[in-house]
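Researcher: Please translate sequence to structure tokens.
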Amino acid sequence: ESLVEAQESADDLDAAGLRSLANTLLPLLTRAGMGDAVEKAQEQFETATNMTNRMAGLSTLIYAQKDQKRADAALVQFYERYADNALVIDKWFAIQAALPGSAGLKRVKKLSKHPAYSLENPNRARALLAPFAAGNLSGFHRADGKAYAFYAKQILAIDAINPQLAARLLTLMNAWRTMEKGRAKQAKAALKSIATHPNLSRDVKEIVDRALA
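Model: Translation complete:
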């Protein structure tokens, strides 16, 4: 009996545990190149009867980076299916923001120009930027500092619209002193570009001054 079949026959509590187990194993097997793991992720994405499993299938396809055409097709399919559900589309942005490695910044920049993305929508802006800065270690903490510079520009753009959100997102760079020397230098430069920007809101100025103190 497969984990998927077991979920269907289990009670609610056991099914939740089996979903968690299956969705933990799937990306591990995919990254390890085990058999038909990518095909299993595709199958789970297409046949899932709940959002948890569908999102897990989709994220596995994205992060595996073994078949970009397959992943991109799944992203388009998912977006078209849930385009009218703002909360689900927020998740669609968020899972892509965590795309690891050098592809992470490229994807976030592309999404920042998506028709459904707007800095004036705080939930949408947070859905893209927070997972990138807080959870994408290899994508955000690039040695060249380009992700820090991009993030700083986004903070400044948001500050002109929603200072409270800009300040909250800026706190995700507070730990720059704990980075290795090269990345710390790049992060500090990004923070200085914010600190020296004219007409900063009081919210953002307080956060950046404290970070650089």
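Researcher: Any highlights?
Model: The two ends are 59 Å apart (CA to CA).
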